[in-house]
Amino acid sequence: ESLKDAFEKDFYIGVALNGGIIDQSDSTSLNVVKKEFNSITAENIMKSAIIHPKLDSFNFEMADKFVALGKTNDMHIHGHTLIWHSQLSPWFQDIEDSLEFKSATENHIKDLALHFKGIVNSWDVVNEALNEDGTLRNSIFLKKMGADYLSLAFKWTSEIDPDAKLYYNDYNMTNPEKRQGAIRMVKKIQEQGIKVDGIGMQGHWHLNSPSLEEIEQSILEYSKLGVQVAITELDISVLPNPWDLEGAEISQNFENSEKMNPYTKGLPDSVQIQLANRYKDIFNIFLKHKDKISRVTFWGLGDGQSWLNGFPIRGRTNYPLLFDRNLKPKAAYYSIIGLKEKF
Ligand code: G3I
């Protein structure tokens, strides 16, 4: 049995793909992806800086390989991401005139939506537009276009590809203030008669936070908007978070410190079990609310490929995913597959 077989009737089970998997040079990883997952997201190659490097030219090569891989293997293809202030093409950032910026934004969205029309099944239309207190992030999009950029982004995407499912995607979506901000934002878009199909809750979570109650309540509150909830970018860091240290600031001094990087020689069994239990608990919630959840996507395949080895401190050895550095399924993998007997 595989993950995709186990959750076939519940929600898509997805994974974010890096370059080596997309260009098929890493065939070992690719085989695991094909066996285990029925949805894919590109970890980086559809972000504006990569796919749209110049005002008038696109770099579709890798993205086309990515979608071809999905199509050949009958997978749900998720596009990440149309509008994001980060990894934004430098030319975009250099546009001074507001009207020019607005038309460049419209063209960026429409060109991508058209190129992938009927191929990309769902899009992160806007990524990470909120501050932790629920107000709008003062991004270049807000500065140049005002708050309307949010509804316009959804409108422009749906005008080109009305069948694609359109998501708002962000992290810390379980934080009550941010959650209220997201709900306000989506309601405003809906009130203008513009469709939003879903909310993506990025699952960059930890062993002890957010609480299971916060996760469950968030799924319930978002779905009251009449949208689907996707758990996107799921990974669970097992390492101490520098921000949790009292009075500490992230500094280079943490690099290579044993306190911040305690498991360089492997993950102790006790933590392995803690991670498996954490995954089991959160998947219990997902299965309980499977009618509200469209997709659960892991942010990477094996532990060695995770961005969390480099964030927020470089050179750490993290173990956040279901497959180890040799792509062997971990206890966490079996703990969630085992849940199916219950549901
Ligand atoms: O490919 C280049 C390489 O040629 C170069 O030598 C190297 C030098 O830094 O950089 C490489 O690019 C890196 C890229 O990942 C591929 O590994 C970028 O520097 C690095 O910034 C980029 O990080 C990505 C990050 O988004 C960028 O913000 C992570 O892989 C990716 O996992 C992460 O994903 C984001 C989601 O898109 C949105 N939500 C949060 C999530 C985690 O930050």
Automatic annotation (TrEMBL):
EC number: 3.2.1.8
All copies of domain GH10, residue ranges: 1-339
UniProt similarity note: Belongs to the glycosyl hydrolase 10 (cellulase F) family.
Record InterPro entries: GH, GH10, GH10_AS, GH10_dom
PANTHER family hit by this protein: ENDO-1,4-BETA-XYLANASE A, GLYCOSYL HYDROLASE
Lineage, opening ranks: Bacteria, Pseudomonadati, Bacteroidota, Flavobacteriia, Flavobacteriales
GO MF assignments: endo-1,4-beta-xylanase activity
Sorted UniProt keywords: Carbohydrate metabolism, Glycosidase, Hydrolase, Membrane, Polysaccharide degradation, Transmembrane, Transmembrane helix
Reactions performed catalytically: Endohydrolysis of (1->4)-beta-D-xylosidic linkages in xylans
Keyword Transmembrane: yes
PROSITE patterns, alphabetized: GH10_1, GH10_2
Protein name: Beta-xylanase
Biological process, per Gene Ontology: polysaccharide catabolic process
Active site residues of this protein: 233 (nucleophile)
